[in-house]
Amino acid sequence: MSGRTRARVCPERTCVGCRERSTKAGLLRVVMIEGHCVPDPRGTLPGRGAYVHATPACVELAVRRRAFRRAFRLTGGRESPDTATLESHVRDAPRSAP
After folding, report:
1. Are 47 and 38 contacting, i.e. CB atoms less than 8 angstroms apart?
2. Torsional sign, CA 57, 45, 70, 16
3. Where do the YlxR domain residues begin and end (predicted)?
4. pLDDT of residue 97
5. Which partner from 22, 70, 72, 82 sits 20 to 30 angstroms from 34, CA to CA?
6. What is the pLDDT of residues 17-57, one digit of tens each?
7. Rounded distance, CA 71 to CA 9, Å?
């Protein structure tokens, strides 16, 4: 071996709910579209993205902590972004076996 081979580096992101670091593939990307938090499983929607584990507990924690307001840099009123679409997506997503 010449020592020139490198291991591939997996990008890491932080879950806005539980604040744990995980691989980008292990988290669900969320974008803001017209005041609604929309899941972006393919990662192709335009705009600033926030990452969260695809579990109801992490989504609930992120909403309670107002993490989406900070992640999307929302200013102004005290209303929170609508997360109904995100919550239904996470709730209805098929679970993988551990």
Report:
1. no
2. positive
3. 13-74
4. 46
5. 22
6. 999 999 999 999 999 999 899 999 999 999 999 999 999 99
7. 25
3-class SS string, the chain: CCCCCCCCCCCEEECCCCCCEEEHHHCEEEEEECCEEEECCCCCCCCCEEEECCCHHHHHHHHHCCHHHHHCCCCCCCCCCECHHHHHHHHHCCCCCC
Burial class (CB in 10 A: 0-12, 13-18, 19+), 66: middle
* 8 Å CB contact between 37 and 83: yes
User: What distance lies between CA 37 and its chain's CA centroid?
Assistant: 10
Between CA 91 and CA 98 the distance in angstroms is 17
